[in-house]
Amino acid sequence: MKIFEATHTFFYSWSHVSAANWRKYPNDKCPHVIAIDVLDRHVDPVTGVLRTERLITCQQNIPKLLCKLFGGSTVTYAREISEIDPKNGVLKMTSCNLSMNHLVNVSETVIYTEDPSDSSRDAQEYLFKMSKKNISNVYKTFQNNFI
Known about the structure:
With 147 residues, this protein is α+β, with helices and mostly antiparallel strands. The chain has helices spanning 14-21, 64-70, 135-146, and strands at residues 2-10, 33-43, 50-59, 75-85, 90-97, 104-114, 122-132. One of its GO terms (cellular component) is mitochondrial intermembrane space. This is PRELI/MSF1 domain-containing protein. InterPro entries: PRELI/MSF1_dom, Slowmo/Ups.
């Protein structure tokens, strides 16, 4: 189920916006992000696309009761895959939750593209999706952790 979709134009070049992507964490506006680990990085020799897979570790403000009920932790993980195509001026990032994915799937896709009519501008497309798992999974988790 699609929850949120948006577009935005940055008045910066694609090279500036794509470089800023690698510097977004850590920062004082997102103190919940406590670690970023690169799992894999390689350049496709044919296309020149740089593909990076990262593990994002977050400290969430989740009530302990919810962690107990649903078998979670206040430390959560997400997987991010970035593909940078410098020839075509495209940066695509997809991320998904690894924690609590037995209850809910959350995915995020962000695509930055150079404005073909003005190289000093960059367009952003953003898509956020969430889908819940079968209610029986929620009941089983509750039963295993609480009853």
